[in-house]
């Protein structure tokens, strides 16, 4: 007798308050690997602090402590963490889908990626293009930015509207090709062959960086940075490392978890990660004359060797760090990370830099200027990231889910 009433209640129209709550709620990231949410937040914070230091303290002349600037800029590897996480997550999705449903899932994959990443990027790019007086170079390169080819163009501020879009372009190019790579991996007969293929691909960017460096000597530091750091061919090794991690996790995850129950085995994985971290934090330890060849190895190879064992530990063992990074707040904060990345540099340019000069003119301690700049950019970036999520990302994801169903 009560079933019809219950059904009617379940189908009753949502109240205005319920509709508002649904509208304002976050469409949270998948929670299959909760510790990775905390890593995403750490990665975006390191990227923001790097850009705050560079733009405020180097490009715009607010004098900061030299040692602090060097250490801040040494934390460049947050971007590489994004790349390896992308490789791992996309590799995991595609390994699972290709093995269970075959290649027909590739079309669904492309639809899901387009609606996940394109709309917010295009909207922010369009707002910046319309709200900025463009140079002739920016106008000429703007179509390439819309097509995610930014990192194939000159990346000077007078040539590109969203020069930080180079990393988004690199990831989209990876998304375009990685399904074919995963399909090829499933056609190989042995896991040894799959690992050999991925290992060979991982070495290609290092070989290219070495070749470019040796042929172009002597290099200006910024010229070497431009030649090696942003280009797809010299920077896809961390993405491949992520795919390798996905393959290892899928094939041997349970066995690795058992193996890591021993403290000695956990230490065996932690040691190379900590050693690589030490090398990354002190690029001048081999002498100032060797910083450039050091960067050839650091930009992708050394960061991969640091993150692979560290992520293996997080994925396959329980501990205080894994538990802390899995806190629910990180999932909510990380959900807004894409929008944060899109808008944080315009906020540094148009708000943090003028504010820093104003504070500097009033003799505010420069360490405090950096802290205020960092805090302000983070707060505003996440606020605008939330608006992008609610107004752009969520509607796009609903369309994506209907098309990909």
Quick gist of this model?
With 405 residues, this protein is an all-alpha fold. It is built from 18 helices and no strands. Helix 3 (35-59) packs antiparallel against helix 5 (78-101) and helix 3 (35-59) packs parallel to helix 17 (337-361).
Radius of gyration: 23 Å
Number of discrete domains: 1
Gross morphology: globular
Order of helices and strands: HHHHHHHHHHHHHHHHHH
Kindly, what is the distance between the CA atoms of the first and last residues, rounded to a whole number of angstroms?
A: 36 Å
Largest sheet: none
Strand content: under 5%
List the total number of helices. 18
Helix percentage: over 70%
Count of individual beta strands: 0
Mean pLDDT across all amino acids: 92
Given helix and strand content, the structural type is mainly alpha
The unreliable regions are: 1-9
Task: Indicate the topology.
Layout: H1 3-10, H2 16-24, H3 35-59, H4 66-74, H5 78-101, H6 105-131, H7 136-146, H8 166-187, H9 191-216, H10 221-228, H11 232-235, H12 237-259, H13 263-281, H14 291-316, H15 320-325, H16 328-335, H17 337-361, H18 366-404
Tell me about this structure.
The structure is a single chain. With 405 residues, the protein is mainly alpha-helical. It has one domain. 79% of the residues lie in helices and 0% in strands. α6 (105-131) runs parallel beside α17.
